[in-house]
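seq/struct pair 1
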Amino acid sequence: MHRVNARGRGWRWLVLAALCISGAVGCGREEPNPLPAREERAADKHPPSAGRFVDLRPRAGDVLVPPRIGFRWRYLAGADSVGELGSEGSNPSAEDHGPAPAFRLQVVDSLNVPYVRTETRDSDIRVTLPPGTPPGIYAWWVECVAPDDTTVLAASDRETFRIE
């Protein structure tokens, strides 16, 4: 009877050891992240070869007086995220690249409430803010959109300005 108990205990230890090893192997395995990092999502949405925005105005610290405020930027078609130019290297023109790109300007308040969303083919625009726009810090950005108006080809970083 003593031998049966020893054999029974040995079997239990073997099962327990196997479970521990398989658990350790399973814990070390990295599960794929269902939500990619922000940079990965941005790279998928905005291909680096599409272009980038530079010389954005207004910038942080700028104070604007409503109701009409102005924005401007420069779009470098074919520039990657660090500014290396592709074959185009400058603002696209109708002669070289077909129709001028469309830009979508968006302005939000500090709570991300939209105040302005408008489109233009120019690289500067003046917009009228809604009456009673309160003082505070606002964020803005511009996107280069494809002719279908649903695909964003490139987007600027967010810039801020103050309304007093």
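seq/struct pair 2
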Amino acid sequence: MNNQSYEERKRQTIIYNAMVNQDLKLAGSLASQYEQMYPTSKPHSKNGDSIVEVEHTLLKKLCHKR
């Protein structure tokens, strides 16, 4: 059985769909939610190494793609 919670799987599925479909509106919405939910200054983080930081970076890059 997968150890991921329902919320983690749901979040990853939404992000995957935004990336695959190049959904700029959804990516923008998710990126702003990430900024509110996960502060960018985490002392234990090194160069954006957490999964959440990587996801946030991908969403921001997709938002800026035209």
